Amino acid sequence: MLFSSINSSTNNFLLNGNCLGHQRALLLQLKNNLIFNPEKSSKLVHWNQSEYDCCKWHGVTCKDGHVTALDLSRESISGGLNDSSAIFSLQYLQGLNLAFNKFNFVIPQALHKLQNLRYLNLSDAGFEGQVPKEIAHLTRLVTLDLSSLITSRQSLKLENPNIEMLVKNLTDITELYLDGVAISSSGDEWGRALSLLEGVRVLTMSSCNLSGAIDSSLAKLQSLSVLRLNNNKLSSKVPDSFANLSNLTILEISSCGLNGFFPKDIFQIHTLKVLDISDNQNLSGSLPDFSPLASLKYLNLADTNFSGPLPNTISNLKHLSTIDLSHCQFNGTLPSSMSELTQIVYLDLSFNNFTGLLPSLSMSKNLTYLSLLGNYLSGNLPSNYFEGLINLVSINFGINSFNGDVPSSVLTLPSLRELKLPHNKLSGILGEFHNASSPLLEMIDLSNNYLQGPIPLSIFNLRTLRFIQLSYNKFNGTVKLDVIRRLSNLTVLGLSYNNLLIDVNFKDDHNMSSFPKLRVLDLESCLEESFSNFSSNLNTVDLSSNNLQGPIPLIPKSNKLHGSIGCPNSTGDWKMLHIIDLACNNFSGTISSALLNSWKAMMRDEDVLGPEFGNLFFEVLDYYTMGLKDALRIMNKYYATKVVQLTLKMPHSDLDQVISDSSADDVDLRRYQDYSVIIVNKGHQMKLIKVQKAFTYVDMSSNYLEGPIPNELMQFKALNALNLSHNALTGHIPSSVGNLKNLECMDLSNNSLNGEIPQELSSIYFLEYMNLSFNHLVGRIPLGTQIQSFDADSFKGNEGLCGPPLTNNCNNDGVQGFASELSHSHNDNSIDWNLLSVELGFIFGFGIFILPLIWLMKWRLWYFKHVDEMLYRFLPQLDFVYEQQEGKRYRSLRWRY
User: Fold this and answer.
1) Residue from 362, 351, 345, 344 nearest 325 by CA
2) Are 205 and 175 in contact (CB under 8 A)?
3) What are the CA-CA distances from residue 420 to residues 49, 350, 444, 686 (Å)?
4) CB-based contact 266:238 (threshold 8 Å)
5) How confident is the model at residue 138 (pLDDT cuts 50, 70, 90)?
6) Structurally, what CATH architecture does the domain formed by 1-182 represent?
7) CA distance 745 to 697
């Protein structure tokens, strides 16, 4: 940026000449004092006494033997520059460039000694602390660059002096770069101070903590060509007077909290080449009729509230190379005049309300990125639509209503890396890809269409493919996983809900470990064979709704799997696996301790959350066809508010009703749930739409498992839900169950467990649902613990259990029941029952109504069943959330947006 402009500017008026001896000596002294990395140096490292003429040294410019410009940028200098440095004795110095170094200390005050300095560049040099007031004494400065955009740590501050004190004497300044400098002043302060710089042409102050309204006095700067105020907290309207800045070429005020209506006349500034007002959600506006004299090359209105149609005069933007109107409210049909945008390189109209047909872009030969995601466009895409667009790298036409065949021309594009056409009405047979000889394609998403016929074999010759999503179509035939394994970079494979058969037989000794990078495998409703030997790298596997039989190490519930649960051919650990659902099968035998020891993700200590914690649903969408922001847009646009507010407490049946109530025109909401998980938790069947990686779940219920509960299972400190019900387990409940500190749901019902309920169970404070019914447990339910807050149904069917909340008292061990103890106490002490009844009433009422509010997070299922239903009816946006503060995990009730 500035460091190059300094070189070009200074060379216009500084002429090389033989170096004077004392100037040479000062430069050698400077080098000897500076601390720098010789291996990364391209200038200082070559300064030596053997070359007498220092004016020929790299980075040195002279006039009449005096050093007049010094460029020491990118020299990895980390020290040796202080107030006594030899650099401040170079009195003829007019240009100094110290950009991109690693000083990590304050700017030396001795800078004021360089009274002839006109060009000063300290950008991203690592300086920190307060900008010294001595810089204000450099009254001849024409260019000053203190920006720090790379580090963006706001290490430099302008507090004393403030912005006004800094610039009031810099009357010759024409370029001022303060990006990333912490200024923290309101609009009337910094705006009026800068309005005095009548000759300034470049003013950039991004990420400066500026606040308040943009002062209209800035419009006095008639020489202004570049104005950047991005990433501040302006909460302001854009002054109408900005339209009078007739020399403006660049206006960037994105992410500033702008509001109101954007002045249309600004679009009509004939010199304007770059306009970026993106990421201002409260900023409204519409596009004008563009003048034939318009110079716009870059137009970014993304994430604003702009609306209305695109004008036919958009064709007047002959120089336009980038247009981003994504996430706005534009509507109407796309004008056919768009075909005249011959210089366009980047075109993003995603997430608007455009309708109708797509205009031709055949003349836009430079186009590399094209996204129309999330609109209402329709019609047939001609087979030659993409013909000649040889530079296209990414195409995203997802979530529209395009029909007909996939254009054959798209299959021949030589530069294409991403092809995304999901959620349309495309039909017909998918042709062969013809660029397999030199493939670049990394992503194919044609899911949720009506494509039929066999999947082209040429897809599996595209060795660079990372992502294949062909689910929810009508493809038929057989797909051999042994053929797919040649795609060594594959991370996502989705073939579910087609008419496919998946041949899982591998030649030689190969198996699923042949997919070293595979993370998501979706073969739902495809398989009719046994399937084993998964890759331990997988973090999402969906093989449900199949007819699988035979032994298998992991698989969704409700199949006909039998034998013991184990993974004999696996030698590694399952470090990412956090949901295990083997329920409703025919598994038998004991639970393998070796297998449990390999489930490392379950064992992590939840006191400190690692970087792997996040949101699985949105991570898959990020792998999928869009990023997190686009995923949220889809949720908001098509799921409607109710579905966004899904929680773990919503039964699956209610979810179905919400989806049917929320469906939009031509949009099947169920198609966005490809990677959701149905589980049984807290007594309900639920479909988790947003599955956190922090959510860990083990369900081996409804099998024929026997033997004791393994102690290894008690190592799962991260476990949130455990269901071992409806098996034939025997032995005691391990006392080490207290290790499961994050457990919220535990179901051990309908087994043959015996012994007493361990006291350690009461230390699991997050436990909200527990079912120990129909076992052979004996003894007293631990007194004085929260275990007694569960209802009697949690303990029924254990004839040997006694004590609250059960009605049978524990008299057989010599301990009197509550009623007899109370009666005995009354007879012996002649208690005044009139007084005691008042006290007991208060205590009982306190215990029933007040203590649950105090212990809200420790309440049990019966509380949530009644109170939460009321809360969700009247306050549907309240939900429990997990937060991380100082490395620890907390749970709190928060308002959801």
Assistant:
1) 351
2) no
3) 62, 13, 6, 31
4) yes
5) very high
6) Alpha-Beta Horseshoe (3.80)
7) 9
Buried (b) or exposed (e) across 817-853, using 16+ Cβ within 10 A? eeeeeeeeeeeeeeeeeeeeeeeeeeeeeeeeeeeee
Q: How many residues does the chain have?
A: 897
Instruction: Give Cα separations from 533 to 377, 485, 493, 509, 513 (angstroms).
Output: 44, 14, 17, 11, 7
Round the average pLDDT of the chain to a whole number and report it.
77
Q: Compute, in degrees rounded to 10, the torsion defined by CA atoms 186, 187, 190, 191.
A: -170
Higher pLDDT, 706 or 509: 706
Of 477, 424, 469, 419, the closest CA to residue 450 belongs to 424
Task: Report DSSP letters for 843-869, one per residue.
Answer: HHHIIIIIHHHHTGGG--HHHIIIIIH
pLDDT in the model for residue 491: 86
**What pLDDT was estimated at residue 890?**
36
Phi, psi of 81 (to 5 degrees): -115, 105
The residue assigned the tokens 């563009």 is 290
Q: Which residues pair with 391 in a beta bridge?
A: none
User: What are the boundaries of each domain within the chain?
Assistant: 1-182, 616-688, 816-850
- Report the distance separating Cα 591 and Cα 602, nearest Å: 16
Four-residue CA torsion sign, 398, 401, 404, 409: negative
Q: Using CA of residue 749, residue 753, residue 758, residue 764, what is the dihedral sign?
A: negative
**3-state SS class at 108:** coil
Q: Which two tokens stand for residue 649?
A: 């407490």
For range 366-385, the mean pLDDT: 94
- Is residue 447 scored above 70 in pLDDT? yes
Strands (E), 202-255: 202-204, 226-228, 250-252
CA distances from 797 to 42, 601, 752, 772, 813 (A): 82, 35, 11, 9, 20
Burial 65-99 (b: 16+ CB within 10 A, else e): bbbbbbbbbbbebbeebeeebbbbbbebbbbbbbb
What are the backbone dihedrals phi and psi of residue 21, each rounded to the nearest 5 degrees, phi first? -60, -45
Q: What is the pLDDT of residues 169-204, one digit of tens each?
A: 999 999 999 999 998 777 778 888 899 898 999 999
| pLDDT reading at 506 higher than 70 | no
